[in-house]
Automatic annotation (TrEMBL):
Gene3D superfamilies found in the cross-reference section: 3.40.50.10950, Isocitrate/Isopropylmalate dehydrogenase-like
InterPro entries, sorted: P_Ac_Bu_trans, P_AcTrfase, P_AcTrfase_dom1, P_AcTrfase_dom2, Phos_Acetyltrans/Butyryltrans, PTA_PTB
Name this protein carries in UniProt: Phosphate acetyltransferase
Catalytic activity: acetyl-CoA + phosphate = acetyl phosphate + CoA
Record has Thylakoid as a keyword: no
Class in the EC hierarchy, top level: transferase
Keyword tags: Acyltransferase, Transferase
Annotated SUPFAM superfamilies: Isocitrate/Isopropylmalate dehydrogenase-like
Amino acid sequence: MKNYSRDFKLFLKKQASLKVRTIVFPEGNNLKIIKSVSICSKLKISKCILLGDSSYIKNMAVQNNIVLNDNILIINPDSIRKNYVDDLFKLRKNKDIFNRDQALNKLNDNVILSIMMLYLNDVDGVVAGITRPTAEIIRPTFQIIQNGCKDPFVSSVFLMLFLDKVLVYGDCAINRYPNSTELAKIAIQSANTASSVGIFPSVAMLSYSTGSSSSGASVDRISHSLEIIKKIKPELLVDGPIQYDAAISKEIANIKLPESQVAGQATVLIFPDLNSGNITYKAVQQTAKITSIGPILQGLKKPVNDLSRGASVDDVVYTTAMTVIQSF
């Protein structure tokens, strides 16, 4: 029997190793990060920069039998903060920074430092968040990477690696109550992410209702988002509103929505709000004991990805691989 989870991981590793990219990890003192970086380097997924205390990191590596090879660079963040003061000051002048001392103070946060490294092309991507809440990763990313962007809208997906399939869940981390236009953007961004990793996007706009079985403001929002998607990207295979079971089960789809080209074979599942999306991905991940890669951020000018604080080493490794792929 084909193992889709294993095959998809192999695919990500192969794709990430096609080009040499450097990813920075601002939480370099974290043991899971040290273990993950060792694996990424061994598998040639990326070159890695750990921001942290060199002596501490090397001692942790020795104590835990972790190999840190030549593709892993450990940088004391205090030694490089001043290199980014002028650029951060210019970027955020008269917004939330009014002098260079304030800029330097902001750069005492290794997450902001790493994002500035990405902004100035010193690295190709950032993977962070294993010790930080999502807001502390997203906020500086918006302020720095999306600064001046005409359409700064950002969403996220999780890649859910089941034994018999790989599904894309969006948006489970960023947008709390997306309106119809935002839902349409989430669907299109998620479909593009699916395509980038070899998954044919068949998009289901999820709801508590399937087709015309019910009505109400939340169902109308889904229906309106579908109209917007079809105007922006008419070639995209998408349907909704549709319930989760009808989206992934051919048997149930034949009963509830037999004429749909998406029902029963959806690969991209768009949740109506953050509540439903976040609860579902965590419930599925923990109950089915599967690997979930993400949240993978979409719509950014340069790749920054936010780790769940409960992320495993496996999650970190494959989130890093996705970050490399996004940098191509």
